[in-house]
Amino acid sequence: MPGRSAIDELVGREQVLDRLGVLLTRALNGQRVTVLVSGEAGIGKTSLLHAVAAEATEQGAWTSWGTSMDTDGAPGHWPWTQVLNGLVRAIGADEARRLADDDAPLLASIVPSLGQVSPVEATDRSRLLLLDATTRFLDGLARERPLVVVLDDLQWADESSLALFDFVARAPHPSGICLIGAYRHDELNDSVRERLSRLITHSQHLHLKGLGADAVHELVERLLGRRVDPSTTEAIHRRTGGHPFFVREVALLAHHDEGTVERVPAAVRDAIERRIGRLPDSTRDVLQVAAVTGNDLLADVVANALGISTLAVEAAAGDAIESGVLAATGSGWRFAHDLLREGILDRLDAHRRVVIHQAVGLALEERMARAGDVAPAELARHFIAAISCEGTHRAVRWTLAAAAADCGALAFSEAAAQLRRLRAAMADSAVDVEDDQLFEILVAEADALARAGSILDARGLLRAAGDIAVRAGDIDGTARVALAVAQLGARFASRRDEILGELERALSVATGAHPVREAQLTAALARELQHSVPEDRPRAGPLSERALELGRRADDAATLASCLLARHDVLWTPGTEQDRAEIAREIVAVARSAGDDERHAEGLLLLANALLEQGSPAFEAALDACLGILDRLAQPRYRYLAETRRACVALLHGRLDDAPVLIDKAAALGSRIREPDTSNVRMSQRLEVVRAGGQADELRAFATQAVGHWTGAPIHAHAVAAGFCARAGDLEGARHHVAAVVDLGTWRADRSYLWSVFMRELAQAAVVLEDRDLCGQLLTDLKPLTGSCGVNGAVVAFAGSHAHTAGSLAAALGQREVARRLLERAGDTYERLGATGWLAEVRGELARTHGLGQAPSNSRSMHRLGGAWLMTFDGASTTVPHSKGLADIARLLAAPGTDIHVLDLMAAADRSGPPGSLTDRRALESYRQRLGEIDREAEESARYHDDQRLVRLDAERQALLDEVRRAGDVRGRPRQFANHPAERARKAVTARIRDAIRRLEPLLPDLASHLHQTIVTGTYCRYREEGPRAWVVDKPPGARPTDNAS
């Protein structure tokens, strides 16, 4: 009998192969392609994919393969682990680590060969980071060389693997990746079916059916190596439906036994049994153990399980290869087809299966001790299956290890499923389970469920674990459960009676008996009370003091740090910055001694925040040290924290051009990694950008956004809205929001870190509305704090000096001397901090309200004060945040009557003339018309499976697209004069000058009107000199000696 070849496997699949070839070509040309191949078992999916992978390799692409396991307990991301391990082996571990860069520690959770796993917080957000890191790694590989990734047997894939497949497939940017998945469409569970149905909508889906009669005839003749009567192959086709595996088995059965083909489908089962039955008993024993082990045969494991030598296993494998049951691979053997393995398993009785699972588990345990290359999940699977004869010890040990490994790989649902299967097996087998074993299982499963987002299920398991601990008098166990319940969290400012009850119950038994747990529980209780409803909060302070006292005696760095943080959070209110600075310094010292970089960075950030509240420039040294650690940790969440704090510093120093860019960059990163507080941080920072900008329409829009965003803090939201409406001149809006604050009634009691912004904006509204009573109340509250500054969050946004807000209130109440002292004190603080924009504001306020440095009534000047301009026109003055448009205006005012080229204003030098169009419009239009025709022809070719034509059309389409991109701009228009640097500069300069003048209208309307009439824009811009009054202008950046500055 002739052996089967790759060609035999692909008989009748020529059209599908051609279609796959078209898709592969697209990937080789830099496109991201996703293909799903479906069909029943034995229909030829795997053979087809092997052919495509071989073709890709021949054309220079990387190829890597992963196969899902048809057994419970497979590690999370298992097929992807195989794919990525294969790629790491192909390019080398050092090159893989270079390519992974900062993501290497994260990727190591599913690809151990990349090095040490990063200790990331195991959350659903971290799981998303892993998906993103894997996609970046694959895209990086594809930039160097096209990449083909094959995932077979997706019907058995775990949820994490399918989520990663979906994520890579949906990545928005082009990449030379061909992602191929194969699955049995008739063996899908509901969750896999739902996931694959969504994938099909943005993938190429190829469904394999049975072969036609001609293909069956050709296949049978190739298998048998002789001519076959067409009536025989027609009968085989009729009885098998053209299913290739069934065709082979029936044809081979007839060839060996001269039997009939009329026994299908029973003949298929008979064929498998007859093929295996012809093998020696020793070979059948090997195949039985191999079938229980998995699809791949591990010679040492099988030998150990059977008590024979590896040479005997190799001999048995040779017999099985000759009979077509096994196939040789590069590293060993595997079953030639899944149906063969499944047929062997079906013949095993229940007792024999349990015995084999036990023997395989013990053999794998020895291999683990010897080579360390066995996944804990594989050991757990066998010992769970053998629990009725092996007992619980090994099953519990390896299942807990497997769940921990899955959580480390951020496969939380899979971790919970491992433990759930263990509990089910223990219940079904009626084995005795010790309380301490069940406790560990319940706590671990609850943790995995909580991380997967199943909070209610986690609570139920923790209740059961808590009952076990209480019944056993286990102090440590009771504490662990209580702390885990607290970790599940609750909504801010809502009742949390269950959490408080668990913590208090655990604390009552830990007090005096377990010092470390007593300290941890007291700290947790203090934090929970602080974040609970207002009536619970008074208890938080004394408990945080007690926690700190216990933490200092506990002789445990992590415990002391958690107690210090609890005390810090309870104290976090304006006026306590010195005490909090001391606590932060101690957190830094404790973390440094323990080598805890994350806690070290957290302590430095809190220290920087407290120093900034004190108005000390030393805050920057602490913040720089914090950012250095965050940069070194090189994890996405820490990059986000660093970028948001750099945005805060840019705002503080008045760099209003840089700050919005940094804010948006940080927000984009935060959204990508699903950082929970991203929108709140962005709103808090945008608040300061809009406030500093002073544009009426932006202020009004932000007031509306504030009320819609801060729904959980309505007093804060309405205070911000009141202040912004007042700044925009909307007195009715300001009055409405002030009334809302007053009606809510608790505004003088709640003093979180939002308080400084709240007070500043409410004070702004009170001053503009001339509400003397409210001004007086606010000034009374602020007076004790005038030596400090407000900071929103932990160095999220600087909110100004409290002396500044108090000075404005004092001025509104007619207390001129008090106001002057307070504003000057604020100015000194801003000067120390380098807060140039704030310094310009306070100096402008002094000039407007107190005549300090007031200009003569006929003077005109522009003076740059850090991040702002002090502008005076005919005696009226105001401060305006710096913008490029104001810099242009300063340049023009400094050289009245002089034509200045827009490229000089843009700091460019190219003044060449227009280049004309690169391609005429008719040519571009003809290209577009042909592209439309190609799309229609491609649809028709796909309907009729004309794959050769599809290849030609695809090549023509790509060539036309390249030409259109070369000749047109991003909107497909001909590249012409409008794309020239001088024309772009003219448009940009005109727009920003007009925008700057528009922003002056509500502040200095006479100046805005004057500039509208006297500034001419175009390729050359000019200030048309009017009369003898000259402008005094600080020398603008880029001004030349020839400019006639006055």
Automatic annotation (TrEMBL):
<protein>
    <recommendedName>
        <fullName>Orc1-like AAA ATPase domain-containing protein</fullName>
    </recommendedName>
</protein>
<dbReference type="InterPro" id="IPR027417">
    <property type="entry name" value="P-loop_NTPase"/>
</dbReference>
<dbReference type="GO" id="GO:0005737">
    <property type="term" value="C:cytoplasm"/>
</dbReference>
<dbReference type="InterPro" id="IPR041664">
    <property type="entry name" value="AAA_16"/>
</dbReference>
<dbReference type="GO" id="GO:0005524">
    <property type="term" value="F:ATP binding"/>
</dbReference>
<keyword id="KW-0067">ATP-binding</keyword>
<feature type="domain" description="Orc1-like AAA ATPase">
    <location>
        <begin position="9"/>
        <end position="178"/>
    </location>
</feature>
<dbReference type="GO" id="GO:0004016">
    <property type="term" value="F:adenylate cyclase activity"/>
</dbReference>
<keyword id="KW-0547">Nucleotide-binding</keyword>
<dbReference type="Pfam" id="PF13191">
    <property type="entry name" value="AAA_16"/>
</dbReference>
